[in-house]
Amino acid sequence: MRTAVYPGSFDPVTLGHYDIIERTAKMVDKLIIGVLNNKAKCPLFSAQERVNMLKEVTSSLPNVEIQSFEGLLIDFVRRSHADIVVRGLRAITDFEYELQMAQTNRVIAPEIDTIFLTTNLKYSYLSSSIVKEIAEYEGDISEFLHPVIAARVREKLEERRRLT
């Protein structure tokens, strides 16, 4: 059985992320989306909120599972009994960093391969950070996110505004 892990912060999950998820799910028996809980960052959504949002938008993909994790990706991949790491590439600048990480992971865990999927051209510019910035200024984010996720982003930002 081919099991892959697609890691990321997914804060929030974009249509670019979903494109990679959907395409990978067709290639493997099981896809585990690993939601990174990075305590060094200050995400818009908690890890559990991001897990829940991903579960909602991937509910039609029967071989997709969502889990949060902390620590080294390679340790999470091993615990998940996966043999593939999937990474999305938007531009050549992504490739340099991702190649370095893949090669480092290969030294640590030679049994685990990394595959790169290029993002659909219509999402090649898209990042969660850009989406959050547009949303912060109350711009239209409907072209970048699933409608449910766009609503959650707007709700979360409105909640933050009320608290400040």
UniProtKB/TrEMBL annotation:
It comes from the Bacteria. SUPFAM superfamilies: Nucleotidylyl transferase. ATP binds at S9, F10, H17, G88, L89, R90, E98, Y123, S124, Y125, L126, S127, S128, S129. GO terms for biological process: coenzyme A biosynthetic process. Substrate binds at S9, K41, L73, R87. Its cofactor is Mg(2+). Residues 5-133 form the Cytidyltransferase-like domain. Its EC number is 2.7.7.3. The record marks H17 as: Transition state stabilizer. HAMAP family: PPAT_bact. This is Phosphopantetheine adenylyltransferase. It comes from Enterocloster bolteae 90A9. The gene is coaD.
